[in-house]
Amino acid sequence: MLRLCGTAEREPETRTLVAGDLRVELQNGNLAGLRFRGHEVLRGISFLVRDRDWGTCTALITDLAIAEQDGCFTLRYHARFTAPSGANLDCKAAISGTSDSVTFSADCISDADFETARAGFVVLHPIVGVAGEPVDVRHGDGRVEHARWPKEIEPWQPFKDIAAITHHVARGIVATTEFQGDVFEMEDQRNWTDASYKTYVRPLALPWPYLVTKGTAFTQQISVQIRAEKDAAPAVADLDAIAVRLVPTAHRLPAIGIGLRPECLGEELASLPLLQTVGAEHLLAHFDPGAGHGIDALEGYAAIAARSGLKVTLELAVPCVRPLAEEMGAYAALVQQAGLRLDTLFVCPSVDRQSTPPGSAWPPCPELADVYAAAREAFPGIRLGGGMMSYFTELNRKRVPADLIDYVSHATCPIVHAADDRSVMQTFEALRHVVDTVRAIYGDKPYRIGPSTIAMRQNPYGSATKQNPGGSRIPMADRDPRHNGQFGAAFALAYAATVAPAGLEVLTLSTLSGPFGLSAGAGEPMASGELRPLAKVLARLGALSRRPLHVVETSRPDAVVGLASGEHLLLANIKSSSQHVVLPMKPSRVFDIVTEEEIPAKQRLALPPYGCVEIVL
Known about the structure:
By secondary structure, this protein is an alpha+beta fold. Helices cover about 20% and strands about 40% of the residues. It has ten helices and 35 strands. β6 and β7 form a beta hairpin. α9 packs parallel to α10.
């Protein structure tokens, strides 16, 4: 487990509950992967409690009782959620299932005033086979809206005041999900690379955080009913092996970027040989005057640039507290004083790094046109990038004027809402939609992504990222143990394979040093300075940079993904179990990218959990 995921901590135990044609997984008191005859109906039904900063309050579950008999199942348990203040929200949960239905209810009461951003049910509908398809939404007044699931990612709530959702699961199979006990609405979770449409309790237009006052009881319930016609789609059959097909494109693989952070300058200067190891071409140097970054950071970046010979992009969080011409001119003077030569400048108003949820007032911010004009005047002749220093969500909600910038950029983070292994790897389903939506908005504008890592470098949805000294799998964490393991390597390769068809200019999936870096630091479960597995993946991607791209289509894109260029085919297993792959032709050589060991060159390969291989065709 340590080698695979960078931690000896195992994920919570999962139990499969079966009732006839219906199958669902129970984990930490919540339901995941609800399937009917093998077809996914819902990605999950969870009762979740968030603290004031949208961090997840972990449930302490007791008195769990499960019964399975006569083609049905029932279970009950008690869950206690504890806020940072020490207040407790106690819930009695009950779940029942038959061959065509599931009901999940929760009766809750708090022992003190409980401050929360959200407390209640969350239902996740899948996106594969659903996006763009018809859906019926029954509202609280009984009115039924005949609509379609959003195809491009919707920045705001696609549906509000939801009492029930009816959608097509597969040919001849329809599911109706009913919501009771509060006002529910939906958001398009692909914004955060979650592979789902999320229906949640309490509209975002209402104030948050809010109090569940002491002694206040409330009840919520989710019910799912499935209907199958006589000519319904057959049950899903397990594949013996995964087929692979290569499709040529007009794109080339992106150049590899590496992030720099002022707090890591000492380690970065000592790690410069790694830049050549991974074939990096660009340095993305973070600079935030509001965080106290000054001339020392710029001088450090100048030293790294001079010794590495790489191109530098200054990622500037503009405070916008003085006249823009004066402010931008002062930063240009600092850059010149430091001797830092820039290839490009990426600017983002500092305030835009924080999310403005639906219903909230936008904070004061100068017009982006004025910000860009001031940047061009202060940094003449330098390519200017715009977008969001945070995530696609913020870019989708505040779309920058494409005609005023030379390229658009954003990052992503896979642990905003959920941090279990499966959810993190499922984000690639949504990431495909992210790059497609960016292309739909910005056309063929040059496009960059990153720094994008498993851990969260900045929290747009609260006051801070979550500290994670124990190396657990937690949402919004400032460091993630899987960055140290084989999991992190598979994540990096799958990320590159997913976004490369969008024709990216630069892709940044790591910093040079620190918790997001290429090598382990002090206090990590690896030896200090030891190369992390993802660095081996980036080295292969760097070697293929700017070469013609072939998209790799597999018969199980939820399990194996990859990319190819020329005779080189790179594959990643994004599952925790081994996967068998049949190649389009017998290879001449096969290598494990992380261990660099040669594998017997066969047309049928067994990819180990989170394995990454390079195949020479």
